[in-house]
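Render this sequence as a predicted structure.
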Amino acid sequence: MMAKKRRKRSKKQLKKLKKLNFWILVSSIIILAILATFVSQTVIYERQQTVKKGDMTRENKIAWINQLAPYARQLQEKYGVIASISIAQAILESDWNTSTLASKYNNLYGIKADAGQKSVVLPTQEFENGQWVTIQGRFAAYDSWQDSMKAHAKLLYHGTSWNSAQYQHVLAAKDYKAAAVALTQDGYATDPTYAKKLIDVIQEWHLSRFDVPQK
């Protein structure tokens, strides 16, 4: 009799264990499903936040371009420097107005200081003998970004103190592509890819729409 009772108990225990295992399995599946949903929603949210941040950055860039454009057009009419070139150089030289020279000293173009001019000494890179080297440069400091843009236009228009015709090919250019090539040709920048970088910026941001039609 005792053996039969034990067998019955064993069968009951097995049934209980099976039921328990079943509910453990069901609970595990439910928990995993909830976790999977949570992780999925988190990833989607993070992606959305990344897109939003990217959109804001692009919006800020567009706003900055639109801020510079009217004055760039005025300077083109007065000094002959194509507006898209003026804007593209500001973008490239100042890294979208984030460089120390631009954000703190309003120098958008990396223009070096003349003797007696308000200035600041900062490290900069120059391309010399086929390689990039870091040097200390004395750069002009301006009271406003407008002063910087005007100084840039006047530099290209009047040339340097040692060569008034330094940038004659830039001024003679009929479009932004020719002007970009002329900037390297006339010695504005040492970077051998400078012209291509300018052209790429102008085309990516459609800056030529700001150019004043030449007569």
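Summary. The CA atoms of residues 119 and 141 lie 5 Å apart. Residues 2-79 form the longest helix (78 residues).
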